[in-house]
């Protein structure tokens, strides 16, 4: 019957189980250990917050949440994910945070906690440190044995992806339309380099005109920071022009006012399928926080590996074992 078919599909596709108390016996203080590093790192280098949240997203979307994004290319070997074009802007502070957390955890519980779990915990800590929700992180991920630069591009969204393409990509990861809108809310903090939105300012879709869906004052300001040619490639603009350093629902209100930075942000308001949710989240921060916590949990269980057949437990997060 229909319901039978549905339930078997569910059992075969159920992600390997993670649990909040996975390290209860082997490393009961893992959350506190990571927490002491993330809070110090946040005081010393606040950019670690947005950078680590983005690092977690880029890990989970490519080969699942398995710390594949942390592997560095060895001399004479093929490029790893970290060196793929789409990962060039991942800030070094994010990698530093994980490295420091891993070394503290290794000193107390050697060989026990995966880099993938440390990244998931650190991302949660930073969401909370920047003013977002606190939620329990389920653990039990193993680290991946592969990290291949050429696997990155097709598994990440592009700044000019259509809503259809975004929905399709998210669906391929087991995520819904709601997850797409809610997780994009991470852009309530952080910054983007000019090249990601330059076309919107000067030559939208080959028209030689700016994107009509940018507020004129924002357009003017962005053009000042980001000249069409010869600009400084280090210049960045805030995703959320109102509160770039705090985790709130201003991102969604901005979209209603044509203040989105990337085409993919603004598209969530322009598309009639996603607009109602944008409007709801704009006026309900509690709802945003609740849905964001749930969506991070869901994203954190993409492609999870368990056991030696498919995974490893690294000592140094940047190097495979053996
Ligand atoms: C939906 C499609 C998405 C696209 C096209 C996209 C694209 C981008 C781009 C181009 C940047 C700027 C990088 C730079 O110039 O340094 C960025 C930054 C960022 N992204 Fe996304 N992103 C998406 C979804 C997400 C999701 C789902 C998350 C996390 C849940 C996320 C978290 C972040 C954060 C926190 C930053 C700021 C990083 C920083 O300031 O260091 N993004 N994103
Ligand atoms: Ca990965
Ligand atoms: Ca904000």
How are the secondary structure elements laid out?
Layout: H1 2-13, H2 30-44, H3 48-61, H4 92-108, H5 115-129, E1 143-144, H6 163-172, H7 177-184, E2 191-193, H8 198-202, H9 216-225, E3 236-238, H10 250-256, H11 263-270, H12 275-282, H13 285-299, E4 311-312
Antiparallel strand pairs: 1-4, 2-3
The protein binds protoporphyrin IX containing FE and calcium ion (2 copies).
Could you describe the 3D structure shown?
The chain is mostly helical and 322 residues long. The protein has 2 domains: 14-156 and 300-312, Peroxidase, domain 1 (Orthogonal Bundle); 163-297, Peroxidase, domain 2 (Orthogonal Bundle). Helix content is 45%, strand content 3%. It has 13 helices and 4 strands. The strands form 2 sheets. A two-stranded antiparallel ribbon has the order 1-4. The protein has a two-stranded antiparallel sheet with strand order 2-3. The protein is globular, with a radius of gyration of 20 Å. The relative contact order is 0.16. Residues 1-13 have low confidence and may be disordered. Bound molecules: protoporphyrin IX containing FE and calcium ion (2 copies). Residues 188-189, 240, 243, 246, 248, 250-251 line the site of one calcium ion (CA). Residues 47, 50-51, 53-54, 57, 89, 91, 157-159, 166, 183-184, 186-187, 189-193, 196, 262, 264 line the site of protoporphyrin IX containing FE. Pfam families: peroxidase (PF00141). Ca(2+) 1 binds at residues 59, 62, 64, 66, 68, 81. Keywords: Calcium, Disulfide bond, Glycoprotein, Heme, Hydrogen peroxide, Iron, Metal-binding, Oxidoreductase, Peroxidase, Secreted, Signal. Its EC number is 1.11.1.7. Disulfide bonds join 27-109, 60-65, 115-317, 194-226.
